[in-house]
Design goal:
four-stranded antiparallel beta sheet
Length: 129
């Protein structure tokens, strides 16, 4: 099992930047593919970014491509989401998620919410215009 705790959210003006962190408990963090999802009021939770357990493969939603960067530090049991050029439409609660992938290749990741078995509590990101 893994427990996830997000941090780094807050209020920022449009065009600004934030860096979200997700700290994972346990000694097997490197066996999990990780993802970031977000949910705005009245909307379903949607995919933002994903990274494989070895960090070598990443994927982004079209809406954030070129502005957001996902990365991980397996030595620190942490995954990050660097968000630049933020827009008001990026306002949402951001969640990190983990999927055990020990039986998959090291470059595997998933963009599907239903594939992830572990979730953090979320961190609010608000972008003002």
């Amino acid at each position: 099992q893994v427990q996830l705790v997000e941090s780094g959210g807050g209020l920022v003006q449009a065009g600004g930047s934030l860096r979200l962190s997700c700290a994972a408990s346990g000694r097997t963090f490197s066996s999990y593919a990780m993802g970031w999802f977000r949910q705005a009021p009245g909307n379903e939770r949607e995919f933002v970014a994903a990274i494989s357990r070895n960090g070598g493969s990443t994927s982004y939603a079209d809406s954030v491509k070129g502005r957001f960067t996902i990365s991980r530090d397996n030595a620190k049991n942490t995954v990050y989401l660097q968000m630049n050029s933020l827009k008001p439409e990026d306002t949402a609660v951001y969640y990190c998620a983990a999927k055990a992938t020990i039986s998959y290749s090291g470059s595997y990741y998933s963009t599907r919410r239903s594939d992830y078995g572990y979730w953090g509590q979320g961190t609010q990101v608000t972008v003002s215009s």
